[in-house]
């Protein structure tokens, strides 16, 4: 067993002072993670009561000050505001002279690359786009979840190593994303993660309506297995009535959804069509069964039973 002493992060000299503009769910977690790596949070800005409470919990004893003062105190500034607010924030900070030459300015938006920071770049700042591909709760558990989390990294070539080093210090895995690919990259993550929450929430509501007392317990193993299979095997993991071509079962689903949860019908049909297209393209859905199925999905009617109208299992 090694007897080499590992210094506590508190005992290491801070290398950068860190500021956070926008104490949402992301900023305080990243600052707390950087603190564990030896950096020193010195200022945070937050407007709402919730953001102030979050900052106090995640970054105790760090003063809450206006955004311009955050930049005045910090060598590394995290801009963790909503996507739509970011361009205006950057322009405002640059125009008011808050940006200092040589200051590392990091935003965490998935949508934008480094160019959104051009006003700050012209003021001498060093622009970095570091987007953690993670969902955040606004609690200390977020810091733990950053271990092994992928970050979408975009920065000027001369700052690439600095950007990747910061991600690694936070326990993350840097993944380089070209400037022009940022919107597509972000759309892919939203499709997979944000829409998943909606689908799961709808599924839980329907199960409760069907009389299931613990829908989370029922869905947990099923969804965990489905996710694992999808990540391992991609489209080959497709199962269920759409992939099998069970048009009658799908028609029955639509009937019940119209009766009990009409707000879910459009989403069900859209996802079923996408699933059918992928299953057909990968040879999982037999062409002779696809016509009736696609007929059900095309008009959303409930009278079609198809040539294979037997009820399927839960696969």
Explain how this protein is built.
The chain has helices spanning 27-36, 49-58, 67-73, 86-95, 118-122, 141-145, 160-169, 182-209, 215-233, 241-244, 247-260, 265-281, 287-299; strands at residues 17-21, 40-45, 76-79, 104-107, 126-132, 150-154, 173-176. The chain is an alpha/beta fold and 315 residues long. A seven-stranded mixed β-sheet has the order 2-1-3-4-5-6-7. Strand 1 (17-21), helix 1 and strand 2 (40-45) form a beta-alpha-beta unit. Helix 12 (265-281) runs antiparallel to helix 13. The longest helix has 28 residues, at 182-209. It is elongated. Residues 1-14 and 302-315 have low confidence and may be disordered.
State the helix count: 13
The spatial strand order of the largest sheet comes to 2-1-3-4-5-6-7
The amount of beta strand, in percent, is 5-15%
Which sheet architecture does the biggest sheet show?
7 strands, mixed
Number of strands: 7
Based on CA inertia axes, which overall geometry fits?
Answer: elongated
| First-to-last CA distance | 49 Å
**Rg over alpha carbons:** 24 Å
**What structural class do the secondary elements suggest?**
alpha/beta
Order of helices and strands: EHEHHEHEHEHEHEHHHHHH
